[in-house]
Write a structure and sequence with these properties.
This protein has 315 residues and is an alpha/beta fold. Helix content is 44%, strand content 18%. Helix 7 packs across helix 13. The protein binds adenosine-5'-triphosphate (ATP) and magnesium ion. Adenosine-5'-triphosphate binds next to strand 2 and helix 1.
Length: 315
């Protein structure tokens, strides 16, 4: 899908990646982990094509599309409804639709005036536009967008409300909905659960488990990593180290090889790259995490409680 060859990248005097080669395959589900500031976001941006490496090559087969959810979803002025945001990734389609409307309006005028050849030309033009609109999914995108939003927990009446009425967690859901509707071949999510409540994290987990493309997920959220990833990529010392196994395998491996099988020497002995998700059990630094079983039963209640609490924000 995406290949890195001898990629180097740094900022100022700081080297983040030194001649890194790695290949991201189709339908892979990768947890990208490493300590703070090691370059995870930079790697996502390179994979998404937003950032260029200083040296080396990044290649993507023709037709590979990437969707990137940044670490900080934009705040500030947000115009339009939730649904507009989700459908906004298809600007080409909506441009066609506007053109169809213009042609239809012109056709209305000309029909009354009665110039046969102009009417004929406009009718043909309308037919062509409509054909392209349909081929690009114009007639089904809204229904699909609504279905995705429903899956992410939005009620039907909320989908047409201004996005600005919603809290950060719900805006992040809308941003994710937009990416899911675009169906990129590679979905890159950069710490999507930061600042999210339990309910939003569960909605995200479900949506990602259903996503069929390649997933690269930067996260310290054990529940999310466990539910959605099958391999790890560890960023450490300017290199990328693939680990073929899920979170439980990774944990076992860390305990066996790095931690000597004991809890105690753990924090001191652990490799820097592992530190990001090592603190399992007693030494956990993760503040707002819950074991999988508890999370699974939480969403409906969480939502009801939130409703009852009556937030100033719509959500
Ligand atoms: N555009 C930039 N200009 C200058 N320095 C940058 C830029 N982007 C990132 N850096 C620096 O590069 C280093 C790696 O940043 P990056 O955000 O990629 O790390 P990260 O692993 O995602 O960190 P975190 O865990 O905090 O999200 C940091 O020291 C950061 O300050
Ligand atoms: Mg980052």
């Amino acid at each position: 899908m995406i290949q890195l060859e001898e990629v180097s990248k740094g900022y100022g005097g700081q080297t983040l990646f030194r001649e890194v080669s790695w290949r991201l395959g189709g339908r892979e589900r990768i947890g990208l982990v490493g300590p703070n500031g090691v370059g995870k976001t930079t790697l996502c941006r390179i994979l998404a094509g937003i950032e260029e490496p200083d040296r080396g090559r990044v290649t993507r087969p023709r037709g590979t599309s990437t969707g990137y959810l940044p670490q900080e979803v934009a705040g500030g002025t947000i115009e339009g409804s939730v649904l507009t945001e989700v459908l906004g990734g298809f600007e080409d389609v909506w441009r066609l639709e506007r053109e169809m409307e213009d042609v239809a309006a012109a056709l209305g005028k000309e029909s009354a005036g009665g110039d046969g050849s102009v009417v004929e030309g406009l009718t043909r033009r309308y037919g062509e536009l409509q054909h392209r609109f349909e081929a690009l999914g114009g007639y089904r995108l809204e229904a699909e967008g609504r279905a995705i939003l429903g899956g992410l927990g939005f009620r039907t009446d909320e989908m047409t409300r201004p996005l600005s009425e919603f809290s950060g967690g719900w805006r992040m859901r809308a941003a994710l909905g937009r990416l899911l509707l675009l169906r990129p071949s590679v979905l890159l999510l950069d710490e999507p659960t930061n600042h999210l409540d339990l309910e939003t994290r569960e909605a995200l987990t479900v949506a990602l488990a259903q996503f069929e493309g390649t997933l690269v997920l930067v996260s310290h959220d054990r529940h999310l990593l466990r539910a959605t990833t099958e391999q790890f990529l560890i960023v450490a010392d300017g290199k990328l180290e693939p680990f073929d196994g899920d979170l439980d395998d990774y944990r076992d491996w860390l305990f066996r090889t790095k931690l000597g099988g004991t809890d105690d020497a753990a924090e001191a002995a652990v490799a820097p790259a592992a530190a990001a998700i090592v603190p399992f059990g007693k030494k956990s630094k993760a503040k707002n995490e819950t074991r999988g079983t508890a999370v699974a039963s939480a969403p409906a209640n969480g939502r009801d409680q939130k409703r009852k609490a009556g937030h100033a924000k719509h959500r």
